[in-house]
Amino acid sequence: MCRNIKTLFNFDPPATDDEIRAASLQFVRKLSGFQAPSRANEAAFSSAVDEITACAHRLLESLSTSAAPRDRDAFASKARERARVRYSRE
Description:
Layout: E1 11-12, H1 17-32, H2 42-62, E2 70-71, H3 72-87
Parallel strand pairs: 1-2
């Protein structure tokens, strides 16, 4: 799994369109091996991002859970703390 793709389900507030598109872009980059496609591949790359974004929207809208929504700020602060511990120089 690409480290830049974040969990988007069951957050309060819900994932934005931009967050879903960013995750889709990262997924296509990972699959294709391209950070940015050549002109010859640009249409296929862009089309794939659009299709995966649409699929991701449908997926997130169709999922259900009985768990309480996760707090986005608390989740982010835990991730920052893990990163601080992981990358701190002692």
